[in-house]
Amino acid sequence: xxxxxxxxxxxxxxxxxxxxxxxxxxxxxxxxxxxxxxxxxxxxxxxxxxxxxxxxxxxxxxxxxxxxxxxxxxxxxxxxxxxxxxxxxxxxxxxxxxxxxxxxxxxxxxxxxxxxxxxxxxxxxxxxxxxxxxxxxxxxxxxxxxxxxxxxxxxxxxxxxxxxxxxxx
Amino acid sequence: xxxxxxxxxxxxxxxxxxxxxxxxxxxxxxxxxxxxxxxxxxxxxxxxxxxxxxxxxxxxxxxxxxxxxxxxxxxxxxxxxxxxxxxxxxxxxxxxxxxxxxxxxxxxxxxxxxxxxxxxxxxxxxxxxxxxxxxxxxxxxxxxxxxxxxxxxxxxxxxxxxxxxxxxxxxxxxxxxxxxxxxxxxxxxxxxxxxxxxxxxxxxxxxxxxxxxxxxxxxxxxxxxxxxxxxxxxxxxxxxxxxxxxxxxxxxxxxxxxxxxxxxxxxxxxxxxxxxxxxxxxxxxxxxxxxxxxxxxxxxxxxxxxxxxxxxxxxxxxxxxxxxxxxxxxxxxxxxxxxxxxxxxxxxxxxxxxxxxxxxxxxxxxxxxxxxxxxxxxxxxxxxxxxxxxxxxxxxxxxxxxxxxxxxxxxxxxxxxxxxxxxxxxxxxxxxxxxxxxxxxxxxxxxxxxxxxxxxxxxxxxxxxxxxxxxxxxxxxxxxxxxxxxxxxxxxxxxxxxxxxxxxxxxxxxxxxxxxxxxxxxxxxxxxxxxxxxxxxxxxxxxxxxxxxxxxxxxxxxxxxxxxxxxxxxxxxxxxxxxxxxxxxxxxxxxxxxxxxxxxxxxxxxxxxxxxxxxxxxxxxxxxxxxxxxxxxxxxxxxxxxxxxx
Lengths: 169, 646
Hints:
A: alpha+beta, elongated, B: four-stranded mixed β-sheet
């Protein structure tokens, strides 16, 4: 049994801003290349070279699910994701309004909302991101790389402190 | 679908806009991008027109695969008659503009006439609007882009713009998108400026249907693995193009002091590792950026750490900036390099041409051909960092006699300066050479001499010639899709076999320029990268069109020939120093002074060079004068050009 499931882990520092994830997302889901149809979006501050991938966080206590007036949004615990039932969706966009990340999108052609479905367990954005700015990891591993980075800093500081002490002797 | 992207004809004099589909038979003949642009240029410009007059036609395009799932389809192509040399003007840039143009419904723009006041084009989901740009005139390249986004209320708008240099008709002004992506060469920014066209803004949400989406995804994945597994691309993705400068300098293949030397001896501060350190310190460990859908990410991000522009954000500096602001003028400081790169990015001028012309002026100053009178008291000796950056400013704003003169480009400037200044101008077809020294590498010398847009490395350079690859490997690459049984040599100082390599590369680069993908994704710097055998698959999965490798080769050959037809119509003559396939006398007369043992003391042998040109012409189907034989035109289906089909 996998009680924790896997989650998207985004490391925005690594993102090169190339937007290949947006294209593979729209081709995988809709068979077309169109960034406007992508479930993931790279938000950019080009004048500072800052690129931030934004996608659904698959919230545990999802505001979109709570606000949906027709109960079209549900949690799929098997893949640890939040899903929209397109047959029930009435296109009212209440979920778009409450999503704290802007990760719920509105399709202007079908007039319905759409969001990341983790590609049924094989997220294409992860598969194609060579620098791993977007990764798909077991939920309990989501903070381990950050822990290691922080630990590295502490260990460097420690070594420097020892060296300084040795010098001063 | 990629094939339903349109072509728009925009007359800025009358404000008339006409939108047409691109017929399939035209696609099969020219694909798109640079190839189709060349067809349009040949058909839509009159012989001998003034490059900066309303009769010059400006083409802007994406390739046939732009914004599809072929990797790195980021390239925007811009073409017109060049105000630098009067030959073909052509520039190609990365970034995000062409994909946005494609999503807005267009692959090709044909821009004619001249607006009566500054304007910009607003292209949005199939519609094109000509808008007032008086308030944008005078703004830098980035200021212009951000101002248009604010005005139209959309942060996702992508713009192609000119800076003050383009407005001031500096003949080597470039077009730019984003922070540093530049269509740098041959003065396309001046052509935009001459039409009072400040910018083209695009935004689109129109679907591009992928013919076989599942296969396209799987093939793209394999493509990416192939591209990112190449060591050269891994290095590019860490250090960017400065690594090429470091590597080339080590054996003596760069230019220093306007071609007097072929190696920079004191350059620790601008070695690729030093630049990487500045980038890491100012931006962070992950400081590389990528163009649209590209996994090579060769663009470094940095902030200028010191000096009057300290704290300013920019990207690069590329190989060409190292040559322009360090190697050629013999300046050695990081601050000069990063600042110079920033200035040309902000003002929109070609770094390569700028650095080359200033270095040329520096040599003339040291020789006494230019004096304090012409420089308005500026001490223009080699190695004067301050004078170099001041000269960049004077050129952009046409200040002082020399600033205004150099802004006219090398050919006109040499006429104004007079004496024997022309002899020191290292150019082909009016366009300055890349900051590399080709005296020890005949293949590369042949490439710069014969490149259609003037001296240039991105039109036919067999760069892998420098790797001393075994002959079997060379044969494997260079004998598909057209058999080649002639000699090939692994030795970069050799003359044999090189004309075929240059001919092959010319077709290879034309093909990628028609497809709209980046040259780092083909046999340019890496021998293992995709070429003719791979493109039919990418084309089929994405567009549904079927081609054989040979058919793509034929298209490339056809497009190269139409560029040649244009140049011939504008007066190309084989051995003419201004309008020919000819090199500056220094290549033949002055031996290299530095470098590796097999490089030092080299010149290009005049007789062998002539033979290389003969052989190259033969492969292209040209006669001894470089004019296509009637049977060649017939074979390529060009006997009726200009045919005015589009």
